[in-house]
Amino acid sequence: MKSTNRLSWKYVRDEIHHEILSGRYGPGDRLPRDADIADQLNCARSTVQRAMQDLSDIGLIERRRKGGTRVHPEPVTRATLDIPITRHEVEKKGARYGYQLIRQKEMSAPRTVLAAFELTSPVSMLRIEALHLSDNRPYMLEDRWVCLDTVPEIRDVDLEIHSANEWLVLNRPYTRCDLRFYAISADQKMSEMLGAKTGDALLLIERSTWIDGAPITTVKTITTPGYQLLTSS
Amino acid sequence: MKSTNRLSWKYVRDEIHHEILSGRYGPGDRLPRDADIADQLNCARSTVQRAMQDLSDIGLIERRRKGGTRVHPEPVTRATLDIPITRHEVEKKGARYGYQLIRQKEMSAPRTVLAAFELTSPVSMLRIEALHLSDNRPYMLEDRWVCLDTVPEIRDVDLEIHSANEWLVLNRPYTRCDLRFYAISADQKMSEMLGAKTGDALLLIERSTWIDGAPITTVKTITTPGYQLLTSS
DNA sequence: TGACATTTTAAGTAGCTACATATTACCGTT
DNA sequence: AACGGTAATATGTAGCTACTTAAAATGTCA
Fold it and tell me: How many CB contacts within 8 angstroms connect chain A with chain B?
């Protein structure tokens, strides 16, 4: 009976979580100091600290030095999304993955691409258009721009064989990643590529990555009709 | 010069991150034991542990007791989304928030709603349809089902005044939340409500919440044309 | 050789201490 | 009352020790 009377930080976390949401503490309210909670629950401050850190991570509370801990005044639903390499996504569904390079061309980045990277001066980039297939049927269309200053090696990659998606994820770690989701209507070109009807509603995922402030790539991933993005846990 | 020669866990994390992605360790490779890394970097194991925990959180590595630490074999892009209460979202943009209840009715949950909750037997629910406004213009349409067994108090809430969205987030904490994003074409009814054109592509956010296994609510949030969802950090 | 029990190992957790750091709170001066 | 410097304080971080636990590795026996 030694282990049972030690409180785990998860227990402490759930205890506090429960107290908060039973109405004992409402949005904006200040919670007792870590040390006091530790006393009260008869555990170490470090245990409370870990519990609080977790609650802070999920957006339930806000912590500030000296300011103390308070319940987040504007509760948010915080969710985590995992976006795998497209090949893995297809294979996990039990389908056969295929890939087609549509076009690649070196050119100066247009205004919209520069904007995605928060840049103003012109940059030389490689534009790559490709189609991902699932059991020989169109699955995703990608329209990608890769910064040649940051990733010159992309020129030596045979993009007929290796998808830029996979090559970049495996070879180019990033320190910042912005994502953006929205819906568009398929235009004629897209619908042909994706085997959809013109006007179909499509989910679009836009992703831009940087390494230490330097732009790596920005990509518009256009999904097929009916595609759904789910949270992981 | 006392503080500078203590390594912070963030430094350790970045060091390992860097090693991994300079190619020193590739996907699936096993990393040294925490204790060895601690020795090598001349810091405490607990510092390495914290660094590793963080890398594990962002999906870069996988850790298993006895199995050790290895680089995630299938790298994923992990992103965090914050979905605020709609009123806060509108007000943060500097617009005036408005809300209209369209309809509410108690009824047995249809098959699709039961499916969202992974239930099979019929359940009595309150269906709520409402419109969120931004500066008097349609902003979001919500189609919600609230489980009356789990949240009987919803009957006493005046939904003409309080949006179910806000009331639930403030009063009904959840232990599980599933999200789903996809695109649909606006049908006649939606386009009328949202002031869009029939056939417009709309982003739809579906959210279901539970408290300790008991269903709370499931809601389809239909956004206006052009709506974009962004990652937080 | 294969199934099962045992040992070993590496991460996970809890507690303690000491110190760092960001703010808030306070107080004195102008 | 406004300003500015100082003290007080709650969280954040690092290090150490000790113990727990999941799971891989090994050994044992049929």
Answer: 139
